């Protein structure tokens, strides 16, 4: 029986850019937890830690689509190399200010610069898949499923690594490792010219407006913003829950169980041949996710929580994968990296909101109240997704008609 993932990795150059993307994206599962662990250890406040993490996420949301747009226009290498060098310097400054116990306000501009210079590596890698698999929509769905598996592998390994380094080695060690992964992976990706999508300069007279002018893209971005709130709230609430249970060092294991569930679902999803339209799969995933986030609110012991969050995570990938596949159909080829970055940064904004709100609730009422944040965000995402069903379905059908 043919293995679709083995065939995918046989595409020339794929293994190399997948490996570079894996290393470069490790920081996406490390940086938020790393900031929470470092800043809370120094200041003693989860509220401050969540606010600093939120500042970084919001600035990432502002900067990543712009750098992605320039990567589409001028080529990835010319944009991501100087940007990642600036990012490394910004993280070094943030870590130094925190460890030197500088005034709290100084952490926020440092976090803003660090966030604004984060490269959306997931967008760059997915754009490469779209380039090397152009004309093969079935294999592209498998590629997006594979990328979700990679993402979730990162969300299994990253929290474990950053928690171990920050609690067992030094409070700043997790962020140092995160920044090092970003630098190494980004430079390795930039060096691979054969799979880099060709630059697509803006044509004279082309619209300058952002992709959010498209109603269907707005629906996807809004839903992914709310899903980001789920992820950010789970991170902060999970760390606080583990600490309340007297096992802060197991926070990474708890969050890794959630990611492991999502990765398992992604493998299953990508190996299937689906008949249902993408939009319908997307909406079903949103509803299932909301239902699966009810049990964590009801638990007060660590071991059962690990089991429950694994099953909650099973609904993540079957929601995220169709979202990226829909986006690939909705935006022009010359703005694909930018489109993927819009979704990634929507998640980033949501992470900022979720981590900040849950951090405040942890400080005020403990982790039990904070777990209501991901549940509420998931319910809102389901409502938005179902309300925007007509816009998404209409655009999906029109894109299929054009392709045919």
Automatic annotation (TrEMBL):
It comes from the Bacteria. Keywords: Membrane, Transmembrane, Transmembrane helix. Signal peptide: none annotated. Coiled coil: none annotated. InterPro entries: MFS (IPR011701), MFS_trans_sf (IPR036259). The chain crosses the membrane at residues 22-42, 48-67, 79-100, 106-125, 211-234, 249-270, 282-299, 305-327, 339-357, 369-389. One of its GO terms (molecular function) is transmembrane transporter activity. PANTHER family: MAJOR FACILITATOR SUPERFAMILY (MFS) PROFILE DOMAIN-CONTAINING PROTEIN, PTHR23542. This is MFS transporter.
